[in-house]
Protein backbone atom coordinates (compact mmCIF):
# COMPACT_ATOMS: atom_id res chain seq x y z
CA UNK A 1 0.00 0.00 0.00
CA UNK A 2 2.82 2.42 0.88
CA UNK A 3 4.64 1.60 -2.34
CA UNK A 4 1.47 2.27 -4.35
CA UNK A 5 0.91 5.58 -2.54
CA UNK A 6 4.47 6.85 -3.04
CA UNK A 7 4.67 5.71 -6.65
CA UNK A 8 1.30 7.22 -7.55
CA UNK A 9 1.98 10.56 -5.86
CA UNK A 10 5.37 10.71 -7.58
CA UNK A 11 3.70 10.11 -10.97
CA UNK A 12 1.08 12.78 -10.21
CA UNK A 13 3.77 15.27 -9.16
CA UNK A 14 2.29 15.71 -5.67
CA UNK A 15 4.85 16.68 -3.02
CA UNK A 16 4.55 14.22 -0.15
CA UNK A 17 6.94 12.95 2.50
CA UNK A 18 7.20 10.53 5.39
CA UNK A 19 5.98 11.75 8.76
CA UNK A 20 5.70 10.59 12.35
CA UNK A 21 5.76 6.79 12.72
CA UNK A 22 6.49 6.30 9.01
CA UNK A 23 9.54 8.54 9.31
CA UNK A 24 10.69 6.63 12.38
CA UNK A 25 10.26 3.36 10.45
CA UNK A 26 12.44 4.78 7.68
CA UNK A 27 15.09 5.76 10.24
CA UNK A 28 15.13 2.34 11.86
CA UNK A 29 14.79 0.02 8.86
CA UNK A 30 13.64 1.78 5.69
CA UNK A 31 10.23 0.18 6.14
CA UNK A 32 6.92 0.55 7.94
CA UNK A 33 7.34 -0.25 11.62
CA UNK A 34 6.32 -3.85 12.41
CA UNK A 35 2.64 -3.98 13.35
CA UNK A 36 2.09 -0.32 12.46
CA UNK A 37 -1.43 0.20 11.16
CA UNK A 38 -1.32 3.99 11.42
CA UNK A 39 0.80 5.09 8.47
CA UNK A 40 0.93 8.89 8.17
CA UNK A 41 2.27 11.08 5.41
CA UNK A 42 2.45 14.81 4.93
CA UNK A 43 1.56 16.71 1.77
CA UNK A 44 2.36 20.25 0.73
CA UNK A 45 -0.51 22.73 0.70
CA UNK A 46 -0.34 23.11 -3.11
CA UNK A 47 -0.40 19.30 -3.28
CA UNK A 48 -3.59 19.03 -1.25
CA UNK A 49 -5.22 21.67 -3.49
CA UNK A 50 -4.26 19.69 -6.61
CA UNK A 51 -5.59 16.48 -5.10
CA UNK A 52 -8.86 18.19 -4.16
CA UNK A 53 -9.27 19.76 -7.60
CA UNK A 54 -8.42 16.76 -9.77
CA UNK A 55 -8.28 13.47 -7.86
CA UNK A 56 -10.70 13.42 -4.92
CA UNK A 57 -12.66 10.15 -4.88
CA UNK A 58 -10.54 8.73 -7.68
CA UNK A 59 -9.91 5.00 -7.64
CA UNK A 60 -6.44 3.97 -8.78
CA UNK A 61 -5.82 0.46 -10.10
CA UNK A 62 -2.20 -0.42 -9.40
CA UNK A 63 -0.33 -3.45 -10.72
CA UNK A 64 1.19 -5.54 -7.94
CA UNK A 65 4.96 -5.85 -8.50
CA UNK A 66 6.21 -9.41 -8.91
CA UNK A 67 2.77 -10.68 -9.87
CA UNK A 68 1.18 -11.34 -13.28
CA UNK A 69 0.01 -8.17 -15.05
CA UNK A 70 -3.60 -9.07 -14.31
CA UNK A 71 -3.04 -8.89 -10.54
CA UNK A 72 -3.95 -5.37 -9.45
CA UNK A 73 -5.02 -3.64 -6.26
CA UNK A 74 -7.41 -0.74 -6.05
CA UNK A 75 -6.89 2.32 -3.90
CA UNK A 76 -9.27 5.22 -3.42
CA UNK A 77 -8.10 8.74 -2.67
CA UNK A 78 -10.62 10.38 -0.37
CA UNK A 79 -10.20 13.93 0.89
CA UNK A 80 -11.94 15.42 3.89
CA UNK A 81 -14.44 18.17 3.21
CA UNK A 82 -12.09 20.33 5.29
CA UNK A 83 -8.94 19.43 3.33
CA UNK A 84 -8.51 22.87 1.77
CA UNK A 85 -9.28 24.77 4.98
CA UNK A 86 -6.28 26.32 6.74
CA UNK A 87 -7.89 26.35 10.16
CA UNK A 88 -8.77 23.32 12.23
CA UNK A 89 -12.37 23.11 11.00
CA UNK A 90 -12.93 19.49 11.95
CA UNK A 91 -13.17 19.16 15.74
CA UNK A 92 -12.12 15.51 15.54
CA UNK A 93 -8.76 16.55 14.06
CA UNK A 94 -9.27 14.25 11.12
CA UNK A 95 -6.72 13.76 8.40
CA UNK A 96 -6.97 15.94 5.31
CA UNK A 97 -7.18 12.81 3.21
CA UNK A 98 -6.83 9.06 3.06
CA UNK A 99 -5.35 6.60 0.58
CA UNK A 100 -7.56 3.57 1.12
CA UNK A 101 -6.99 -0.04 0.04
CA UNK A 102 -10.48 -0.89 -1.22
CA UNK A 103 -10.05 -4.62 -0.50
CA UNK A 104 -8.80 -4.44 3.10
CA UNK A 105 -9.99 -1.05 4.30
CA UNK A 106 -6.47 -0.22 5.51
CA UNK A 107 -5.45 3.36 4.83
CA UNK A 108 -2.71 5.95 4.91
CA UNK A 109 -3.58 9.26 6.56
CA UNK A 110 -2.43 12.42 4.78
CA UNK A 111 -1.98 15.78 6.46
CA UNK A 112 -1.40 19.03 4.57
CA UNK A 113 1.42 21.15 5.93
CA UNK A 114 0.69 24.86 5.70
CA UNK A 115 2.33 28.10 6.71
CA UNK A 116 0.78 29.27 9.96
CA UNK A 117 0.54 33.02 9.46
CA UNK A 118 -0.61 33.72 13.03
CA UNK A 119 1.80 31.43 14.91
CA UNK A 120 3.52 33.13 17.87
CA UNK A 121 6.82 31.66 16.60
CA UNK A 122 6.72 34.13 13.72
CA UNK A 123 7.64 33.73 10.08
CA UNK A 124 8.50 30.32 8.74
CA UNK A 125 6.24 28.38 11.10
CA UNK A 126 4.17 25.62 9.55
CA UNK A 127 1.55 23.34 11.01
CA UNK A 128 -0.84 20.56 10.13
CA UNK A 129 -4.13 19.38 11.55
CA UNK A 130 -2.62 16.50 13.51
CA UNK A 131 -1.06 19.11 15.80
CA UNK A 132 2.40 19.05 14.23
CA UNK A 133 4.33 22.32 14.15
CA UNK A 134 7.55 22.86 12.25
CA UNK A 135 9.87 25.53 10.97
CA UNK A 136 10.02 25.50 7.18
CA UNK A 137 13.83 25.20 7.34
CA UNK A 138 13.42 21.91 9.23
CA UNK A 139 11.23 20.43 6.50
CA UNK A 140 12.67 21.94 3.34
CA UNK A 141 14.39 21.21 1.11
CA UNK A 142 13.05 17.67 1.21
CA UNK A 143 15.65 14.93 0.86
CA UNK A 144 15.35 12.02 -1.56
CA UNK A 145 15.56 8.48 -0.19
CA UNK A 146 13.73 5.18 -0.53
CA UNK A 147 11.09 3.61 1.69
CA UNK A 148 9.71 0.12 1.24
CA UNK A 149 11.90 -0.11 -1.87
CA UNK A 150 10.47 2.87 -3.77
CA UNK A 151 11.58 6.51 -4.05
CA UNK A 152 10.39 8.67 -1.17
CA UNK A 153 11.13 12.00 0.46
CA UNK A 154 11.96 12.93 4.04
CA UNK A 155 12.30 16.25 5.87
CA UNK A 156 15.59 18.14 5.71
CA UNK A 157 16.18 17.89 9.48
CA UNK A 158 14.88 14.35 9.96
CA UNK A 159 16.94 13.50 13.03
CA UNK A 160 15.98 16.66 14.88
CA UNK A 161 12.28 16.21 14.10
CA UNK A 162 12.35 12.58 15.25
CA UNK A 163 14.19 13.45 18.49
CA UNK A 164 11.64 16.19 19.22
CA UNK A 165 8.75 13.77 18.69
CA UNK A 166 10.07 10.47 20.08
CA UNK A 167 13.22 11.29 22.08
CA UNK A 168 16.80 10.31 21.32
CA UNK A 169 16.36 6.79 22.75
CA UNK A 170 13.93 5.82 19.98
CA UNK A 171 16.60 6.54 17.39
CA UNK A 172 19.24 4.43 19.11
CA UNK A 173 17.24 1.23 18.75
CA UNK A 174 19.25 0.60 15.60
CA UNK A 175 18.69 1.97 12.22
CA UNK A 176 20.12 3.41 9.08
CA UNK A 177 21.42 6.57 10.65
CA UNK A 178 21.61 5.84 14.35
TrEMBL record:
Example GO CC term: the record gives:
membrane
Instruction: Provide the LicD/FKTN/FKRP nucleotidyltransferase domain boundaries.
Output: 11-114, 130-167
What the entry lists under Pfam families is as follows: LicD
Instruction: Tell me the superkingdom of the source.
Output: Eukaryota
Q: Which GO terms describe its biological process?
A: glycoprotein metabolic process
Major location, coarse class? membrane
Classify the protein's membrane topology as the record does: Single-pass membrane protein
**Keyword annotations:** Membrane, Transmembrane, Transmembrane helix
The molecule here is called LicD/FKTN/FKRP nucleotidyltransferase domain-containing protein
Which subcellular locations apply to this protein? Answer: Membrane
- Source organism per UniProt: Dichotomopilus funicola
Amino acid sequence: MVRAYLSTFNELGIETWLAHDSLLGWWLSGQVLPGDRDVRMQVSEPGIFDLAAYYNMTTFSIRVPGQPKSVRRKYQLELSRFAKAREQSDPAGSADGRWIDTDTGLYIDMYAVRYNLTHPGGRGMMSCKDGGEFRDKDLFPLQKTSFEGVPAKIPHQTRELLVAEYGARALKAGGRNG
